[in-house]
## 1
Amino acid sequence: MERNVLFAGFLLAVLSGSVAAWAASVSFGASVSAEASAAADGSRIGPWFGNVPFETVHRGQYDYFGFQEPTHRVARNATAWKELWMMGQNVQDQPAPDVDFSKRIVVAVFSGFKPTGGYDLEVRRVIRTPWAMHVFVEETSPGKGCFVTQALTDPNHMVSVPTSGLPVKVIRSHRVQDCN
């Protein structure tokens, strides 16, 4: 876990400024340095590194997908997407949101069951590297003094990203909501 967080921090540092051009040229040779310099803001560094645009497909609190612990699932085709969607007890009567699987895949991130309201989960950023698609997720829990519903919740966030055969890695961070 610590290694993933350190690597994620390194990726963010590399992709956040002029260091990005240097890192790309060192890692992949001078052939990408011009392209990397043009994207020194970290938005895109050649086909290997960069921010990946994502769109929210669904985000919920009370869908009850049945995952007890934090996890994620990737749907790379319509069949897998419909099977995943039908797992949600409170969304089964709704059609699965449309996704063009010739161009996109769905990454669904779940926090697992939580004992009360006040918990949240949000995909904040997606970064592509040569080795994986890294999905950065922020989980929020209620702090001392927060008024919360007394109901079981199941925070989840499902996003679509451009099609890729790369493995998906989820990097989670945690924040406690200050309610005082």
## 2
Amino acid sequence: MVLDLLTYAGNRENLHDIEDLCLFVQGDIADRPFIEQLLSDEKIDIPVNSAAESHYSLAVLDPSRFFRTNADSGRRRGIILRHARSDKYPCRRSGNVESLGGRCHYNLKLQSPESHPAVLDLGCGLGRHAIAFAKKGFRVTATEASQRAIDHLQSRAEQLDLSIATHVCSMLEQPFHQSLFDIVLSYNVIYHGRKSHFVEAIGRVWNLLKPSGLFYFTCPLRKDGKYGYGECIAPHTYASTKSVTPGDIHYFTDRTELCEMLTGFTICSIDLDEGYWNNKGEEQFFSNWQVLAQKVEDYSNEKQDVGSD
């Protein structure tokens, strides 16, 4: 990923030859909420800050710009020094070595725009998955609660001459007809809320998928580093103080309960993704399920019990 504010020295065209190898994000390294969200969404392991605002003339005329962009932004967020300690933050375990995300990512990559043309990126964030699918020729729709994130995705899609339909909405307010998509992708999204919200989201995805459609999503286990911290608002549900945005509500599941909630789906694969990330300077363990499931055609979702908290 390449981050730049594109001020006096930034030139977007310098990346022309490597467009397919990187994701460009226009933003300010000193914008704390934006950078922390970016590091979390994109699971950045090693940030590198190369001579930002370091031109001699500018450093002399306005040294505060250099301090803000380099020393202050890195010190306050632990972004540069702590993330760069590669002996601490490369550790990431996955249930299968076929790819970084194991069998789920691998099986998802096997799909083609001919067999599964319509893709929904539910809770797309900055849109890296939506962009990746669109580049491969899929017909992509992306939804996100943040207008800023959708604006970024649209700008990026226009730069790459890609067509991606976007909507600003919550995960439980998808404005689509039933049986519209061949693949629904929801990366780090549907566990935000109570168990009933999680189950309701699964049911809504079932409705959105075509017969035999595929559902890929991630969710945290109860050994994840955020579990047990903050206010417990329901069983296994916390307004976690260890989240990127403290106070975010997370529901944590186990394998048995996860399988029970996926009524109406055949589970193709479940992978364990674990490792460490830098949470404001603190090494924090993460443990997530990566799930790929297929819609069962003869199941009536209208009878599904959304369960209790």
## 3
Amino acid sequence: MTSPELPPDPGSPEEGHENLPAVPGEVSREVEPVSRQKGFLSARAVYADITSAGERRPVIPVPLRPENLRGTVKAFAGLNWYRARVHGIRLPLYVLALLAWAVAGVFRLGWKVLHWWLLIEQHPLRAKAIGDDDYKAWLALHRAAQDTRRFRGTVTAAGARTTPRRRTRSSPARSAPSASPRSTGQ
């Protein structure tokens, strides 16, 4: 399937033009679909000059001027009150999503640690050694895997021991009141 040959855009470098001056154009919010435009994909770009000569923006933005500040603060507070209500309503869903993804993350992490610990990536090498009837290579891989698993198991156990856990508080044993001079009022 061949694409139709498109004519060069007016003002393109192929026609010898480098830059075009700004051309006033009509402002329209309605855009005609590309397939209905005359000369499919050969529409000319219109550059609109939206500034006048010598025009500058104000030093203090209009919303922050003293006469507008109260309205700006009121609008900003209203927007943030709306956002707080929206996310307050959604909070239970956020908590459920957090818990679901936390459980998924624990299982994914556990799976990755288990694969790392058991040296799963070496399995294809040992299977190939068995398939090639190379007992010495399999034995060397097996011994290396045993040593690696022993070391990684130690690292995993040490990491599991240092992981912060929720500790239950045991209530202190109640002892009989002491008979110190301060407690008896002497």
